[in-house]
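[job 0412] stage=complex_fold ligand=iron/sulfur cluster status=START
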Amino acid sequence: MTKWVLKGLRTGIVTTAYPGRDETAGGVSPGRPAGGLPFDAGSSIDVERCPTRALIRDGQCLRVDYRRCVHCFRCAPGREGSTQWQDGYEWAARLNDRRYEDLSPGGVFRRSLHIRVVDAGACGACLSEIEQLNKPYYNIHRLGFFLTPTPREADVLLVAGPVTDHMRMALKKAYEAMPTPKRVVAVGACALCGGVFGPSFISGGGASDIVPVDVAVPGCPPPPLALIHGLLATVGRKPSASWPSTALESGGKENV
Ligand code: SF4
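[job 0412] stage=complex_fold status=DONE, emitting structure tokens
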């Protein structure tokens, strides 16, 4: 016991300072392709190579549909193409700001937040990142966020996976069992648009087919800091990332 206390004192606090300060440590985010840059010959190569059609030519501009990007790194720097990548992890977008009128400091989500995770047929990558939230480095308890095993105590449903046919009813029931007000956060490309799995003969095209999605956290998988940003954006403690208006109106599913 004494040994561990001494070790703890020697090591000091290792928990990330985010959201108090931006996290600059290496390896906390894979980064992602930057959109809005001029389209050139190298961009054509990247658009051709992108397996999920996440890279789109828009006139003289290269756009990125972040819901579809599966972080395959085929367009990463050092490859044949010319797409640039950006650092950062504040990727989460609120899809319907009309539902956020109650996010004032005295609003309903001002106290602790309980989160129910639903594995709706995920491959395990998003779940592995979600698991990190309870570990000492990310430690969401310090923010008043707690994972709960039951939807009856949950304020937020965190959904990962494309929603396989077997999970369709379970997801619906979990949502209906939650007390109001409640929010749904879709995590990862699969929950946002089906990813590489759906829509298919065995799974749907994302969580918004079944439940109303409030916040989208893109990535494949999104790093834990992006998940924390998503939860903070859900309760109004961080601004939302900006997404194209067509995607927001369609619950994050429409092509942008
Ligand atoms: S990293 Fe994303 S945008 Fe780039 S090629 Fe892969 S899926 Fe497409």
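The radius of gyration is 19 Å.
[job 0412] exit 0
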